[in-house]
Amino acid sequence: MHRRHGAGHALQDEQSTHFVRIATPVAKYWNTKRAVLAMGEIMECLGGNGYVEESILPRLYRDVPVNAIWEGSGNVQALDVLRAMRKEPASLTALLQYFQAEKGHSPLLDQHLVKTEQLLTQPPGALQARAAVTAIALSIQAIELIHIAAPAVAELFCQSRLGHPTSGWGCLPADNMNLLSQTIAYAFQQQA
After folding, report:
1. pLDDT tens profile 88-119
2. What pLDDT score was predicted for residue 170?
3. Which has more confidence, 172 or 87?
4. Are 112 and 99 in contact (CB under 8 A)?
5. Which end of the chain is more exposed for a tag (fewer CB within 10 A), N or C?
6. pLDDT in the model for residue 93
């Protein structure tokens, strides 16, 4: 959440605290789930070199699932989000205000936010906990990318994750591959 100065500063800090109450378990859930997939993709990209014990990757691949144990399993994190929404309604209010303030940047994001808001205000039960947390995670990622990334990158994220979700990594439509290649080349140029 963006900080404001002046008379609304104390209120903004309180809203940020409530927002973080939901955003933290969402991040723990999302990052621990994605880390296992990311490490598998990394090893696959390197082939046999990523598999042999002489490299650090096999150890990292074995260790990465431990994050879900230390941070709490996916179900525990998802249920924590539901608990926060139920026991600390100000946290849900702060999250919905964050979504509301970010509408208008992307039609795909706007559609996703409407669906997410509907899902969250019902409220979701335990069986919908993972779906709710996934929707929140995608929303926050899209919003933050819109603010910090190149517009083409944010739009590509919205298209591939919100508009026409792909079933896995490396499944972007062919017309987006050129944009992705340009973005990667630009990022490497910036680091050099």
Report:
1. 999 999 999 999 999 999 999 999 999 999 99
2. 60
3. 87
4. no
5. C
6. 95
Query: What gap in Å lies between CA 22 and CA 137, rounded to an integer?
Result: 10
Residues 6+ apart with CB under 8 A from 3: 9, 12, 16
Own/partner contacts of 108-112, CB < 8 Å, gap of 24 or more, are: 108/142, 108/158, 108/159, 108/162, 108/163, 109/139, 109/142, 109/143, 109/146, 109/158, 109/162, 111/162, 112/138, 112/139, 112/142, 112/158, 112/162
Closest C-alpha to 128, from 95, 166, 81: 81
Q: Which residues contact 18 (CB under 8 A, 6 or more apart)?
A: 88, 90, 91, 93, 94, 95
Compare 65 and 117 and report the one with higher pLDDT: 117
pTM assigned to the model? 0.80
3-state SS, residue 149? coil
Amino acid at 132: A
Q: How many CB atoms lie within 10 A of CB 123?
A: 13
pLDDT, residue 7, reads 39
Q: Who contacts 139 (Cβ-Cβ below 8 Å, separation ≥6)?
A: 99, 109, 112, 113, 116
Q: Which of 44-53, 76-85, 105-114 has the lowest mean pLDDT?
A: 44-53
Alpha carbon distance 7, 18 (integer Å): 19
